[in-house]
Design goal:
The chain is built from four helices and four strands, in the order H-E-H-H-H-E-E-E. It is an alpha+beta fold. Strands 1-2-3-4 form a four-stranded antiparallel beta sheet. It is elongated and about 60 Å long. The mean pLDDT is about 90.
Amino acid sequence: MKLLTLNFLTCARKTCKSTAAAFPLHPKDAELEQIEIDMNPLFVKNMLPRLEWEAMKTLTQELGLPALPAETPAPEELTTEDGEASQVLKDLHVLLMETSVASGKLVCGNCGHEYAVKEGIANFLLPSHMV
């Protein structure tokens, strides 16, 4: 599960839908893997405005990854003067597109429910008593 995906996930319980603590889900005992893929600068640039930046900063901090800038990078920070991808863009690509959670758990900050992640796939099926 790519780290980018975690920026769009929240707890599946109905009681958690209306609380801010249900987002983002917090990784626990997460094992990360990095899978190299070709960089798509346009995709990363278009995703930046859609990201919840504070949630991404929290996620990187909880996973022990390098800290993100305090603010979402401006579009001009993503390319150099000669039109090449800047180091900021390259770092964001590695973080969002190449870094994945291979196994571990995702924990809701509201109810504490743990969603298992195995082989990069999170199980969001709830037991019947929690639906």
